[in-house]
Amino acid sequence: MKKGIRYFKLLSASPTGLRSPLVTVEIVIAPGIPRHHVVGLAHGAVKESLVRIRAAIQRAGFDFPRGAVTVNLAPADTRKDGSAFDLPIALGILAADKKIDASALAEKPVLVMGELSLDGSVRPVAGVMPALLRSVEQHVVRALIPKANEPEAVPFASIDVASVSSLQEAVDQVGGNASFKAVKKEPACDRGAPEPCYPDFAMVVGQRDAVRSLALAATGRHNVLMTGPPGCGKTLMARCLGGILPPWTKELALEATCLHSLRSPGLHLLAHRPFRSPHHSVSPAGLLGGGNPLRPGEVSLAHGGVLFLDELPEFSSRALEGLREPMQDRVVTLSRARHVESFPADFQLVAAMNPCPCGLGSLTRNECRCSERRRRSYLSRISNPLLDRIDIHVMVPAVDPVDCLQSSSTDSAALATSILRAANRLANEKPRIHEDAERALTRASSSLGLSMRAMSSVRRIAQTICAYDQEDVVVKRHVSEAIRLGGQGRRAVVD
Predict the structure, then answer these.
(1) Residues 11, 23 contacting (CB under 8 angstroms)
(2) How far apart are CA 68 and CA 33, in angstroms?
(3) Which of 192, 225, 253, 343 could hold 296 in an S-S bridge, CB 3.0 to 4.6 Å?
């Protein structure tokens, strides 16, 4: 390299998706007229990073180098956005200018991420956990992250992670192998512990059939639509569902937490399946994902858990129709002019709605004052293709106050035990369908005019019922209940 030109490089990441690409940060300081450039398809906060970096370096007691400073973020054809490059650029400038000993950065690749404040402190950044996941896959053995992001490093035992709260601490950490102090990895919390914030099913009275339907849905991870008048317990039962879901694997928990990390830095590993309940005013971008840069929406934040949509017809048609592909493919792909990102979206949809605009229409009550035209207009807000992707359709009747004094309810703990046993049974081996039951299913599907998707859904519901009842073979009784939940329920909503 030409005399007088100083060069240094280190490793960082662009927190854009579940598999954040690693980025090589190259620093060149050349003598001449002072000018500063950041190249490599830098956008937004990256373009103005040198302003923050100059103030932070001077606050830490160092002189900003004279001459031309050029920062290259490679690969140059990948969009870079966010403030996570502040800390690696600052350390690279100091190392290239020979102001610090950066032997720990030079000997082995070290992932460095962090935003700098003007006073030299290091602020948390989004997407640290996906970056660590990518680093492990690329065999990077060390990382330097903000102190507030430290909980995100706990699940990664194969990488030494040091956390800092200021630029001066970062300088001390990279001064050599002996000075690199990794954070202590505490064991992850027990993912099988009950979730305390969910209401108990013992609070639900007079809805025995609906509770059983939700228990079956939790067992087989079926999508559910509950239709009934206001005050019958639809929302309460949906929120109770979060407390009876079977535990998930560590791999799925890590994947879901990585998605949440892209929006909320500093998260611990999620101990329980997420339960997301967006308001019906949510935009399509908020529900499906979007923004600049692209970020996961509610369907991805509910990955591995439940997405609850209350007052389903009140959601915008664009948002609802956008659910069709994620419900089918378990992934949502967002495309922009120069950026395409895919986020996992393996969620369980639980929705609730009134039978008509006034909410009083039902199968057993005649208080509804809605005209037939108004009622059909209300129901038509939910398209048939979307309804066809919902497995279980439950008609929830109004509860007689007298029944509240006489009926008994099953608590969430008892339901969770039965669900866990049945879910393990389904995971090991799905129950075999008897020939008579298969013929009955075919005849019923033909008479009801069910699609092939709906017929497959009814078959899976029958297998879930069989496993929940602790039986080995699906018989006509299981098929009949599955048709009532998954076949006739569709017709009841549409008609």
Answers:
(1) yes
(2) 6
(3) 343
List pLDDT tens digits, range 61-95. Answer: 999 998 899 999 999 888 888 899 999 999 999 99
CA 60 to chain centroid: 38
CATH, residue 239: 3.40.50.300
**Per-residue pLDDT reduced to its tens digit, 181-206:** 666 555 544 443 334 578 999 888 88
Specify whether 36 is located in the same domain as 172.
Answer: yes
- Residue 192 within a domain: no
| pLDDT for 487 beyond 60 | yes
d(CA 297, CA 348): 15
Task: Please provide the size of the chain in residues.
Answer: 495
Q: What is the model's pLDDT at position 490?
A: 57
Number of structural domains found in the chain: 3
DSSP assignment letter at 80: B
The identity of residue 64, as a single letter, is: F
- Quote the domain boundaries for residue 15: 6-179
pLDDT digits (tens, 9 = 90+) for 451-469: 888 889 999 999 999 999 9
Q: CA end-to-end span of the chain, whole Å? A: 77
Sheet of strand 68-74, all strands in order from the earlier edge strand to the far edge: 35-39, 68-74, 22-30, 6-13, 110-112, 142-146, 160-164
Considering the domain boundaries, does residue 304 fall inside one? Answer: yes
* 3-state class (DSSP) for residue 145: strand
- Tell me the backbone φ, ψ of residue 193, rounded to 5 degrees: -70, 145
Joined tokens for residue 256: 């879901």
Residue 195 lies in a domain: no
Q: For the residues 338-359, what does the mean pLDDT come to?
A: 90
Among 40-44, 255-259, 436-440, the minimum mean pLDDT is found in: 40-44
- Output the CA–CA distances (angstroms, integers) from residue 253 to 19, 111, 453, 481, in the order listed: 15, 23, 29, 33
| pLDDT (0 to 100) of residue 410 | 82
Do residues 161 and 231 both lie within one domain? no
